[in-house]
Design a protein that fits this description.
Blueprint lengths: L11 E8 L6 E2 L7 E3 L4 H11 L3 E7 L16 H12 L3 E6 L13 E2 L2 E2 L1 H18 L3 E4 L6 H10 L9 E6 L6 H7 L18 H14 L3 E5 L5 H10 L4 E5 L1 H12 L5 H15 L3 E4 L2 H8 L2
Parallel strand pairs: 1-3, 1-4, 1-12, 4-5, 5-8, 9-10, 10-11, 11-12
Antiparallel strand pairs: 2-3, 6-7
Helix pairs in contact: 1-2, 2-3, 3-4, 6-7
Bound molecules: ligand PBG.
Length: 304
């Protein structure tokens, strides 16, 4: 009766990886228990997840071929576009498509490179194309994670202009330039080959700037905003909750997951209890939506 915060299956979003080049499921050393699926598994996986109680997935694709323009990200036959169609055909999962270029570019950056850096405005044009292509394939929501200035407005315009006025945008509004993304980059083969992402992701020291990033995204048309990573930024989640009247998602990222897994594998932490405590804390700080690689394991705890 006195418990103030509870996890619920409806809170959870499970990230899912599809790799076009695979013909069987593959595991990555730094992300124990997180599979990368071949496209041929998509229907089966969607059915299984939905019947186990997962409601929503966040899709990432690893293309067979990468190029400087990340053209695989907006191809009608791209890896994520194919995965979306298969998942839609076989389940009632809510399908959220991550919208970025770093998995698709050969240099690993989240946009078009020019003059030694990422060109914000050239990249916006690509994001518009990607948004249209993901919505055409049947995505129910898009989640831009590239941190280009003006991306939410540009994507809103691209969606509205292509008959997708009802597709919401979950904006990675305050995405910090974090070391906690390391294991994700192992899965997605998306570590930048030259320089880091400091020019477009946020300085971890800046909580006030995070509020202005969020405000700008809301003004541009974001329907849900996100704070990422989650546990090192609980203060940012809390502040966003008190300043804004909009749903807040928090992404417990790959490094947060990997730390718990590694400590548990060594017998240093109790995995089940640490997992539950980490997510309860993120929700207590103010997150309405929890994106986590633990989603299936949490469901098992909730039905105990
Ligand atoms: C793509 C993207 C990244 C993550 C989600 N979308 C990687 C990055 O910014 O390098 C990280 C997710 C995770 O670490 O779990 N821009």
């Amino acid at each position: 009766m006195l418990t103030e915060t509870r996890l619920h299956p409806d809170d959870l979003v499970l990230p899912l990886f599809f790799n076009e080049a695979l013909d069987s499921v593959r595991y990555t050393g730094s992300m124990p228990g997180v599979p990368t699926y071949p496209l041929s598994d998509a229907e089966k996986v969607a059915e299984r997840l939905h019947s186990s109680g997962i409601n929503a997935v966040l899709l990432f694709g690893i293309p067979g071929h990468k190029d400087p323009e990340g053209s695989g990200a907006y191809s009608a036959d791209g890896v994520v576009q194919k995965a979306i169609r298969k998942i839609e055909a076989s389940s009632d999962l809510l399908v959220i498509a991550d919208l970025c270029m770093c998995e698709y570019t050969d240099h690993g950056h989240c946009g078009i490179m020019s003059g030694g850096g990422v060109d914000n405005d050239l990249t916006l044009a690509q994001y518009g194309k990607i948004a249209k292509s993901l919505a055409d394939a049947g995505a129910h929501m898009v989640a831009p994670s590239g941190m280009m200035d003006g991306q939410v407005l540009r994507i809103r315009e691209a969606l509205d202009g292509s008959g997708h006025r009802d597709i919401p945008i979950m904006a990675y509004s305050s995405k910090f330039c974090s070391s906690f993304y390391g294991p994700f980059r192992d899965i997605a083969h998306s570590a930048p080959s030259v320089c880091g992402r400091e020019a477009y992701q946020m300085n971890p020291a800046n909580g006030r700037e995070a509020m202005s990033e969020i405000q700008r995204d809301i003004e541009e048309g974001a329907d849900i905003i996100m704070v990422k990573p989650a546990m090192p930024y609980l203060d940012v989640i809390r502040q966003a909750k008190s300043e804004f009247r909009i749903p807040i998602a928090a992404y417990q990222v790959s490094g947060e997951y990997a730390m718990i897994k590694a400590a548990a594998a060594n017998g240093w932490l109790d995995e089940r209890r640490t997992m539950m405590e980490s997510l309860i804390s993120i929700k207590r700080a103010g997150a309405d939506i929890l994106i986590t690689y633990f989603a299936e394991d949490i469901l098992k705890e909730l039905v105990r």
